[in-house]
Write a structure and sequence with these properties.
Distance between the termini: 36 Å
Number of helices: 7
Strand content: 15-25%
Number of domains: 2
Oligomer: single chain
Order of helices and strands: HHEEEHHEEEEHEEEEHH
Shape: globular
CATH topology of the largest domain: Phosphorylase Kinase, domain 1
Number of strands: 11
CATH superfamily of the largest domain: Phosphorylase Kinase, domain 1
Bound molecules: adenosine-5'-diphosphate, magnesium ion
Largest sheet: 5 strands, antiparallel
Radius of gyration: 18 Å
Protein backbone atom coordinates (compact mmCIF):
# COMPACT_ATOMS: atom_id res chain seq x y z
CA UNK A 1 0.00 0.00 0.00
CA UNK A 2 1.33 3.38 -1.01
CA UNK A 3 1.15 5.68 2.00
CA UNK A 4 0.56 9.32 1.26
CA UNK A 5 -0.25 12.36 3.34
CA UNK A 6 -3.70 13.72 2.89
CA UNK A 7 -2.63 16.76 0.86
CA UNK A 8 -5.87 17.11 -1.08
CA UNK A 9 -7.71 17.97 2.11
CA UNK A 10 -5.34 20.95 2.48
CA UNK A 11 -5.62 23.50 -0.33
CA UNK A 12 -2.19 24.77 -1.36
CA UNK A 13 -2.91 28.47 -1.79
CA UNK A 14 -2.54 30.37 1.49
CA UNK A 15 -5.67 32.50 1.03
CA UNK A 16 -7.74 29.45 0.07
CA UNK A 17 -6.32 27.61 3.07
CA UNK A 18 -7.53 30.35 5.38
CA UNK A 19 -11.03 30.11 3.87
CA UNK A 20 -10.87 26.33 4.16
CA UNK A 21 -9.84 26.60 7.80
CA UNK A 22 -12.59 29.06 8.51
CA UNK A 23 -15.17 26.78 6.91
CA UNK A 24 -13.94 23.84 8.97
CA UNK A 25 -13.89 25.77 12.19
CA UNK A 26 -16.97 27.96 12.04
CA UNK A 27 -19.58 25.34 12.90
CA UNK A 28 -17.89 23.73 15.92
CA UNK A 29 -16.44 26.60 17.92
CA UNK A 30 -19.58 27.69 19.73
CA UNK A 31 -19.07 28.92 23.29
CA UNK A 32 -19.85 25.66 25.18
CA UNK A 33 -17.56 23.69 22.83
CA UNK A 34 -14.81 26.25 23.42
CA UNK A 35 -15.25 25.78 27.18
CA UNK A 36 -14.99 21.99 26.78
CA UNK A 37 -11.82 22.45 24.70
CA UNK A 38 -10.42 24.69 27.41
CA UNK A 39 -11.18 22.05 30.08
CA UNK A 40 -9.52 19.28 28.04
CA UNK A 41 -6.55 21.58 27.63
CA UNK A 42 -6.39 22.18 31.40
CA UNK A 43 -6.48 18.41 31.87
CA UNK A 44 -3.32 18.30 29.75
CA UNK A 45 -4.60 16.36 26.73
CA UNK A 46 -3.24 19.02 24.39
CA UNK A 47 -1.70 22.49 24.47
CA UNK A 48 -2.66 23.96 21.14
CA UNK A 49 -5.16 23.07 18.43
CA UNK A 50 -3.05 23.50 15.30
CA UNK A 51 -4.88 22.64 12.15
CA UNK A 52 -8.26 21.47 10.80
CA UNK A 53 -7.67 18.03 9.33
CA UNK A 54 -11.03 17.07 7.82
CA UNK A 55 -14.73 17.65 7.91
CA UNK A 56 -16.48 14.28 8.15
CA UNK A 57 -20.17 13.40 7.97
CA UNK A 58 -20.82 14.42 11.54
CA UNK A 59 -17.67 15.90 13.03
CA UNK A 60 -14.76 18.21 12.35
CA UNK A 61 -11.33 16.74 13.08
CA UNK A 62 -8.38 18.84 14.22
CA UNK A 63 -4.74 18.10 14.81
CA UNK A 64 -3.44 19.31 18.19
CA UNK A 65 -0.09 19.20 20.01
CA UNK A 66 0.46 18.26 23.65
CA UNK A 67 3.09 19.66 26.02
CA UNK A 68 5.57 16.95 24.99
CA UNK A 69 5.23 17.94 21.34
CA UNK A 70 3.17 14.86 20.38
CA UNK A 71 0.24 15.19 17.99
CA UNK A 72 -3.28 14.13 18.96
CA UNK A 73 -6.55 14.17 17.01
CA UNK A 74 -9.47 16.19 18.38
CA UNK A 75 -12.85 15.14 16.95
CA UNK A 76 -15.60 17.68 17.60
CA UNK A 77 -19.17 16.62 16.76
CA UNK A 78 -21.22 19.35 15.15
CA UNK A 79 -24.29 20.15 17.22
CA UNK A 80 -26.25 21.72 14.41
CA UNK A 81 -25.60 19.40 11.52
CA UNK A 82 -25.41 15.93 13.05
CA UNK A 83 -28.10 13.46 12.00
CA UNK A 84 -29.84 12.67 15.29
CA UNK A 85 -32.50 10.38 13.92
CA UNK A 86 -29.88 8.15 12.29
CA UNK A 87 -27.85 8.11 15.55
CA UNK A 88 -30.77 6.57 17.43
CA UNK A 89 -30.77 3.59 15.05
CA UNK A 90 -27.40 2.69 16.59
CA UNK A 91 -28.00 3.82 20.21
CA UNK A 92 -31.42 2.33 20.95
CA UNK A 93 -31.24 -1.06 22.67
CA UNK A 94 -27.61 -0.63 23.80
CA UNK A 95 -27.60 -1.12 27.61
CA UNK A 96 -24.73 1.37 27.94
CA UNK A 97 -27.06 4.13 26.77
CA UNK A 98 -30.41 3.01 28.15
CA UNK A 99 -32.68 5.95 28.82
CA UNK A 100 -30.95 8.36 26.40
CA UNK A 101 -33.61 10.90 25.47
CA UNK A 102 -34.35 11.76 21.85
CA UNK A 103 -33.37 15.37 22.46
CA UNK A 104 -30.75 16.58 20.01
CA UNK A 105 -28.06 17.50 22.53
CA UNK A 106 -28.46 14.43 24.77
CA UNK A 107 -28.26 12.20 21.72
CA UNK A 108 -25.01 13.84 20.73
CA UNK A 109 -23.54 13.41 24.24
CA UNK A 110 -24.41 9.70 24.17
CA UNK A 111 -22.94 9.41 20.67
CA UNK A 112 -19.65 10.97 21.76
CA UNK A 113 -19.48 8.70 24.82
CA UNK A 114 -20.32 5.74 22.58
CA UNK A 115 -17.42 6.49 20.25
CA UNK A 116 -15.00 6.72 23.18
CA UNK A 117 -16.37 3.55 24.83
CA UNK A 118 -16.20 1.56 21.57
CA UNK A 119 -12.68 2.81 20.79
CA UNK A 120 -11.52 1.82 24.28
CA UNK A 121 -12.95 -1.70 24.03
CA UNK A 122 -11.56 -2.15 20.50
CA UNK A 123 -8.13 -0.72 21.32
CA UNK A 124 -7.78 -2.85 24.44
CA UNK A 125 -9.00 -5.84 22.41
CA UNK A 126 -6.12 -5.43 19.96
CA UNK A 127 -8.08 -3.90 17.06
CA UNK A 128 -6.22 -1.44 14.78
CA UNK A 129 -8.03 1.74 15.91
CA UNK A 130 -6.64 5.05 17.23
CA UNK A 131 -5.86 4.95 20.95
CA UNK A 132 -8.65 6.86 22.72
CA UNK A 133 -7.32 9.45 25.17
CA UNK A 134 -10.28 11.41 26.56
CA UNK A 135 -13.81 12.59 25.87
CA UNK A 136 -15.87 15.52 27.09
CA UNK A 137 -19.27 16.76 25.95
CA UNK A 138 -19.19 16.54 22.10
CA UNK A 139 -15.39 16.03 21.84
CA UNK A 140 -13.20 12.90 21.61
CA UNK A 141 -9.40 13.13 21.86
CA UNK A 142 -7.46 10.25 20.30
CA UNK A 143 -4.20 9.18 18.70
CA UNK A 144 -3.46 11.13 15.49
CA UNK A 145 -2.47 9.28 12.31
CA UNK A 146 -0.51 11.71 10.18
CA UNK A 147 2.71 13.50 9.37
CA UNK A 148 3.13 16.98 10.82
CA UNK A 149 -0.34 18.52 10.79
CA UNK A 150 -1.56 16.47 7.83
CA UNK A 151 -3.56 13.28 8.26
CA UNK A 152 -2.65 10.20 6.26
CA UNK A 153 -4.96 9.38 3.39
CA UNK A 154 -7.96 7.13 3.70
CA UNK A 155 -8.33 3.99 1.60
CA UNK A 156 -10.81 5.60 -0.82
CA UNK A 157 -8.07 8.02 -1.93
CA UNK A 158 -5.42 5.37 -2.64
CA UNK A 159 -5.06 2.24 -4.72
CA UNK A 160 -4.00 -0.78 -2.70
CA UNK A 161 -0.60 -2.18 -3.70
CA UNK A 162 -1.30 -5.40 -1.79
CA UNK A 163 -5.05 -5.90 -2.14
CA UNK A 164 -5.07 -9.52 -0.96
CA UNK A 165 -3.00 -8.76 2.13
CA UNK A 166 -5.09 -5.68 2.96
CA UNK A 167 -8.37 -7.57 2.40
CA UNK A 168 -7.27 -10.46 4.62
CA UNK A 169 -6.14 -8.05 7.33
CA UNK A 170 -9.41 -6.07 7.35
CA UNK A 171 -11.53 -9.23 7.30
CA UNK A 172 -9.60 -10.47 10.33
CA UNK A 173 -10.27 -7.12 12.03
CA UNK A 174 -14.03 -7.47 11.40
CA UNK A 175 -13.87 -10.99 12.86
CA UNK A 176 -11.96 -9.77 15.93
CA UNK A 177 -14.53 -7.00 16.46
CA UNK A 178 -17.27 -9.65 16.16
CA UNK A 179 -15.50 -11.80 18.73
CA UNK A 180 -15.46 -8.83 21.11
CA UNK A 181 -19.25 -8.80 20.70
CA UNK A 182 -19.60 -5.90 18.24
CA UNK A 183 -20.27 -4.95 14.61
CA UNK A 184 -18.50 -1.78 13.34
CA UNK A 185 -21.54 -0.83 11.19
CA UNK A 186 -19.81 1.87 9.09
CA UNK A 187 -16.96 -0.13 7.59
CA UNK A 188 -15.99 1.64 4.39
CA UNK A 189 -12.82 2.81 2.58
CA UNK A 190 -13.60 6.34 3.88
CA UNK A 191 -13.07 5.11 7.44
CA UNK A 192 -9.81 3.21 6.88
CA UNK A 193 -6.60 5.22 7.11
CA UNK A 194 -3.25 4.11 5.63
CA UNK A 195 -0.49 4.70 8.20
CA UNK A 196 3.23 3.91 8.62
CA UNK A 197 2.10 1.08 10.83
CA UNK A 198 -0.49 -0.45 8.47
CA UNK A 199 -4.22 0.12 8.03
CA UNK A 200 -6.21 1.64 10.90
CA UNK A 201 -9.98 1.74 11.38
CA UNK A 202 -11.70 5.04 12.26
CA UNK A 203 -15.19 6.24 13.08
CA UNK A 204 -16.37 3.71 15.67
CA UNK A 205 -19.32 5.61 17.17
CA UNK A 206 -21.95 3.63 15.30
CA UNK A 207 -20.56 0.21 16.29
CA UNK A 208 -23.34 -1.87 17.91
CA UNK A 209 -23.40 -4.83 20.28
CA UNK A 210 -24.28 -8.19 18.73
CA UNK A 211 -27.49 -8.08 20.75
CA UNK A 212 -28.68 -5.14 18.61
CA UNK A 213 -31.69 -6.24 16.53
CA UNK A 214 -30.00 -5.11 13.30
CA UNK A 215 -26.45 -6.30 14.13
CA UNK A 216 -26.59 -8.97 11.44
CA UNK A 217 -27.81 -6.51 8.74
CA UNK A 218 -25.00 -4.11 9.68
CA UNK A 219 -22.43 -6.93 9.57
CA UNK A 220 -23.61 -8.00 6.10
CA UNK A 221 -23.40 -4.39 4.91
CA UNK A 222 -19.85 -4.00 6.31
CA UNK A 223 -18.71 -7.23 4.65
CA UNK A 224 -20.40 -6.30 1.35
CA UNK A 225 -18.54 -2.97 1.34
CA UNK A 226 -15.23 -4.68 2.03
CA UNK A 227 -15.70 -7.43 -0.58
CA UNK A 228 -16.88 -4.96 -3.25
CA UNK A 229 -13.96 -2.59 -2.74
CA UNK A 230 -11.25 -5.29 -2.75
CA UNK A 231 -12.74 -7.28 -5.64
CA UNK A 232 -12.37 -4.13 -7.75
CA UNK A 233 -8.74 -4.03 -6.64
CA UNK A 234 -8.21 -7.63 -7.81
CA UNK A 235 -8.35 -9.50 -4.49
CA UNK A 236 -9.94 -12.93 -4.17
CA UNK A 237 -12.88 -11.80 -2.01
CA UNK A 238 -16.14 -13.70 -1.61
CA UNK A 239 -19.08 -12.58 0.53
CA UNK A 240 -20.31 -16.02 1.66
CA UNK A 241 -16.82 -17.23 2.52
CA UNK A 242 -16.12 -14.01 4.43
CA UNK A 243 -19.33 -14.34 6.48
CA UNK A 244 -18.59 -18.01 7.27
CA UNK A 245 -15.07 -17.05 8.39
CA UNK A 246 -16.33 -14.28 10.69
CA UNK A 247 -19.02 -16.44 12.27
CA UNK A 248 -16.79 -19.48 12.74
CA UNK A 249 -16.28 -19.87 16.49
CA UNK A 250 -18.20 -18.34 19.37
CA UNK A 251 -18.15 -14.57 19.89
CA UNK A 252 -16.92 -13.51 23.32
CA UNK A 253 -19.71 -11.16 24.32
CA UNK A 254 -18.75 -8.20 26.46
CA UNK A 255 -22.34 -7.05 27.12
CA UNK A 256 -22.57 -4.95 30.27
CA UNK A 257 -18.81 -5.15 30.87
CA UNK A 258 -18.63 -2.51 28.16
CA UNK A 259 -20.13 0.10 30.52
CA UNK A 260 -17.81 3.03 31.09
N1 LIG B 1 -7.35 9.83 14.56
C1 LIG B 1 -7.26 10.35 13.34
N2 LIG B 1 -6.05 10.56 12.76
C2 LIG B 1 -5.96 11.09 11.52
N3 LIG B 1 -7.02 11.45 10.76
C3 LIG B 1 -8.26 11.26 11.27
C4 LIG B 1 -8.44 10.71 12.58
N4 LIG B 1 -9.77 10.65 12.83
C5 LIG B 1 -10.37 11.14 11.72
N5 LIG B 1 -9.48 11.51 10.78
C6 LIG B 1 -9.78 12.10 9.45
O1 LIG B 1 -11.03 12.76 9.51
C7 LIG B 1 -11.98 12.16 8.61
C8 LIG B 1 -13.35 12.12 9.27
O2 LIG B 1 -13.25 11.39 10.50
P1 LIG B 1 -14.38 10.38 10.96
O3 LIG B 1 -13.99 9.84 12.31
O4 LIG B 1 -14.63 9.38 9.89
O5 LIG B 1 -15.63 11.37 11.15
P2 LIG B 1 -17.14 11.35 10.63
O6 LIG B 1 -17.91 10.61 11.69
O7 LIG B 1 -17.56 12.77 10.60
O8 LIG B 1 -17.17 10.64 9.30
C9 LIG B 1 -11.40 10.78 8.29
O9 LIG B 1 -11.83 10.33 7.03
C10 LIG B 1 -9.90 11.04 8.36
O10 LIG B 1 -9.46 11.61 7.13
MG1 LIG C 1 -16.21 8.79 8.70
Amino acid sequence: MRKRSNEEKRPAHEEKRTKHERRLESDVFDRPSLMAISKLRQQGWFDTIDYPVAKGKEANIFCATNSEGHKVAVKIYRIETSNFIRMHDYIDGDPRFAGTSRKRFETLLAWTRKEYSNLKIFYEGGIAVPKPLAFLRNIVVMEFFGEGNIAFSTLDQLKSDHPQKDYDFLLTQIKKIYQLGFVHSDFSPYNIVVTDDGLKILDCAQAVLLAHPRADDFLRRDVENLVKYFRKQGADADFDRAMAYIKDGKPVRRGLEALL
